[in-house]
Amino acid sequence: SAALLIEDLVKKFGTGRPAVDGVSFDVPAGEIVVLLGPSGCGKTTTLRCVAGLEHPTGGRISIAGRVVSEPERGLLVSPRERDIGMVFQSYAVWPHMTVRQNVAYPLKHRRKANGDINAKVRETLELVGLGDYAERPVTSLSGGQMQRVALARSLVYRPQLLLLDEPLSNLDAKLRVHLRDELRRILKQTGMTGLYVTHDQTEAVVLGDRIGVMRNGKLLQMAPPGEIYNRPADAFVANFTGASNVLLGKVLGRTGETATIDLGAAGRIEAWTPQPLSAGDTARVALRAENVRLGERGDRNVFSGRVLECRYQGMQTVYDLDLGGQRLEALELGTAARHHANGDIALTLPPETCWAYRD
Ligand code: ADP
Ligand code: MG
């Protein structure tokens, strides 16, 4: 059975829209699932319901096949009895203890034998790269090191499930990237099952075996990173993961997952669609700036545009284009701007990188 199973989870705070609104997904053992979404979409509340720190309003949560929360049956297992590890945004370490004492604490608390504790603490400190820091007072460490202590403390007793709530967001940019990549290695090396919450797309892609995109308390799509990026199920998912271009048009027809859309003066575009669009519908076509092929005439979706502005940014150039009265942004990697403003240009929008949604 799944290490974590969430079925139709609802959490309301007072009246109004629920903070979590009918969320369902599972986390198989050894997998890392990332919940990704903007601030306020219900990620932390979902995590806190799993931990038992919030009392759900409805639905069911099971950990390793055991139901830990089901309000309809008056069932609620306390946080202590859930065998969960948690790492938060703030560095939750005990300031009056050394690094070793911090990491040993959960084992002492669980009444493990002393020899056993020492070996496990040493092994876990090595794992998180703090092998040489065992006897340091925890307050002498940097933010990144304190977060490693917090991580070690929640890994040392090998909980069935590790919950991480934006653990890197208080670190500076360079450290965040470093610890992010290392976190992936540590979690995979230990075979931990994890539920990780973030608003950062790159973090989600690096860490997640699957990503669940949330908005307004609802889970919009749960899929491996490649699928979220290449087949966004929803216009919000497309936009949140970086498809900043939106072209408006009217659906002319649809064959399977390919829709043909009239963009007005720009002409017709073919686009992939996950929705049952039909002729006459108003549609939005979303696409990434980096998928615009400037100066190319492909087999399909060839357009004529005009360069309004080009912004050279060193390793890349961003172009603002006019496409039959609609705006289109294009991005080219490379150290030179190849196209210049006020010129007409042919461009191709590969159909598999154009995604159509009902407006
Ligand atoms: P996220 O972690 O995605 O930023 P949260 O789960 O923290 O989102 O919050 C989801 C929604 O629930 C927000 O509208 C937030 O204001 C509300 N909320 C969270 N905790 C409480 C609380 N203890 N009391 C009332 N409203 C809350
Ligand atoms: Mg949060």
What would you say this structure looks like, in words?
The protein is an alpha+beta fold and 359 residues long. It has two domains: 4-235, P-loop containing nucleotide triphosphate hydrolases (Rossmann fold, 3-Layer(aba) Sandwich); 243-358, Beta Barrel (OB fold (Dihydrolipoamide Acetyltransferase, E2P)), CATH 2.40.50.140. The chain has eight helices and 21 strands. The protein has helices at residues 43-51, 99-109, 114-127, 143-155, 173-190, 201-207, 225-230, 235-240; strands at 4-11, 20-27, 32-36, 58-63, 66-70, 75-76, 84-87, 161-165, 194-198, 210-215, 218-223, 245-255, 258-262, 268-272, 282-287, 293-294, 302-312, 316-323, 326-333, 344-348, 355-358. The protein has a six-stranded mixed β-sheet with strand order 7-8-9-3-10-11, with helices on both faces. The chain has a five-stranded antiparallel β-sheet with strand order 2-1-4-5-6, covered by helices on one side. A five-stranded antiparallel β-sheet has the order 14-13-12-15-21. The protein is globular. 39% of the residues are buried. The mean pLDDT is 94. The site of magnesium ion has 2 residues, from helix 1.
Give a short synopsis of this structure.
It is found in: Cell inner membrane. The chain is built from eight helices and 21 strands. The chain has 359 residues and is an alpha+beta fold.
Summary tags:
single chain, 359 residues, alpha+beta, Rossmann fold, OB fold (Dihydrolipoamide Acetyltransferase, E2P), 2 domains, 5-stranded antiparallel sheet, 21 strands, 35% strand, globular, binds adenosine-5'-diphosphate, binds magnesium ion
